[in-house]
Structures are given as structure tokens and as C-alpha cells.
Amino acid sequence: MNNKLKNILWPLAFGIGFILIWELGYLHEVLDLRPFQLPIPSQIMTTLYNNLPKVLKDGGVTVIGALIGLTIGSFFGFMIAFLATWFPKWGYGGMIVVTALNAVPIVALSPIMNLWFTTGMAQKIGVVTVVCMAAMAINAYSGLNNLKAFSLDLMETVAADKWVVFRKLRLPNALPNVFTALKINIAASIIAAIISEYFAASTSGLGFGIKDHLRKAEMAMGWSYIVVASLVGVVLYAIIILVERDAIKWHASQR
């Protein structure tokens, strides 16, 4: 059995085993829980199947907000890294500001965005934008500046200007870091969008669905939303992996 097959089969076997332990009630015995506190997987899947259109509609609202915020936040994060690289004397101040913003918890950002924006979607996009900026800025800055000394010396010996150095050397060197930031931001954007929906005035989205149904003790329905949120995160992460493999196939990490 080759390593690639082992890497698939072992996690799959662990996942199936965990679900069986949960389904047969052993997990309830270990955690001292009752079925109404933690529904079994078959009950969750039956509830999800019966309410699939509503859950998917709410999932679409969350994903749209997360992806728009991810795009805006990643763009501004990269631009901050670019400015900090291009104008190192004062541009690095932007890195400090975005790092400070990253320390603000989402539960504090959401009420602030509620005051700034009038719609739930705009509030959600604002929260996700702030959350995604820091990871992109820090990773992109590292990729733009951690160059091999001889490569920069070589560009200088041929009198390459700053733009050529950026386009031919810094940007390709930063691409693996950019994809690392995107993989971090995919999970962060979904989490930020869901948490922001807890505080938003809107009545749609995965976060609102989880909060509303758990509050009404409809545990199976609440868990259905959690399952969809997890699947959305996995699918989006897989898409980034596939794009990364094609975009930087020349990099050692993809061989």
C-alpha cells in the first residue's frame, strides 16, 4: 500500500469509526450526554434532508458574504504588504496597524460593524474583510521580502529597476505565501461570517440558523446547519488546494 493511499484510508477509517461510536451512543456515555443534547448522526442527516432547501439557501447567504469579504480583505492585505515592501520607511506602519486589527476579537467587531452598516450583508462583509486582511498582509510581506540573497544580487547586477524586481522576483516568490494566506482565510472567513450573523439584525444565514434553532432546543436542526457549515469550509479549502496546485506547480511544495 503506497503512502498516498494510506493518507486517504487512515483519516477515512478514523472518521467512519468516530461516526459509528457516535451513532451507537458510546459517545453519549463517555460525555454523559442525553440524545436531546447531542442528536445522533442519522437523526441529523434525516433532519437535514427534510429541510435541505432552507439550509442551502441560508448557506448561500453566508458563503456569498464570506467570499466577498475574503476577496476584499485579501486584496487590501496584499496591497498593505506591497506598500510596506515598496516604501519600507513608512509603509511598514500599515503592517503594524493591520496586526493590531487582527488582535480585535470578532465578537467586538460585529457590534461595531452593526453601527457602521445598515444591512446584515454589509456588516458581515465588513467583519470578514477585517479578519482576512492580517493573514494575507503578514504572509504576503514575508514572501515579498524573504528572498534568496544571490537572486536579488543578480537582479541588481543587471540594473533591474524596482518594478522588474517586483514582477520577476518578489511576486513569484510570494505566491506560495499568498496561497497559504488564502487557505487560512477560507476557514477564518466562514467562521467570521457565521459569528457576525449571531449579532446581525438579518434573519438568514448559517449563523442565524444555528443560533435560532439551538435557542429553540431544535438540536437536530441546529446541528444540520453546523454540518453544512463544515462541508462548505471543506469544499472551499479543497478548491483553493486545486487552484494552488495548478498555479504554482513549479514550486517544490507541489512536486
General description of the model:
The protein is mainly alpha-helical and 255 residues long. It folds into two domains: 1-33; 40-254, MetI-like fold (Orthogonal Bundle), CATH 1.10.3720. It is 82% helix and 0% strand. The chain has eleven helices and no strands. The chain is globular. The chain starts with a helix and ends in an 8-residue tail after the last helix. The mean pLDDT is 86.
Brief write-up:
The chain is an all-alpha fold and 255 residues long. Helix content is 82%, strand content 0%.
Task: List the defining traits of the structure above.
transport; 255 residues; transmembrane; NitT/TauT family transport system permease protein; mainly alpha; MetI-like fold; globular; 11 helices
Q: Terminal Cα separation, in Å? A: 20 Å
- Along the chain, the helix and strand elements come as HHHHHHHHHHH
Largest sheet: none
How many helix segments?
A: 11
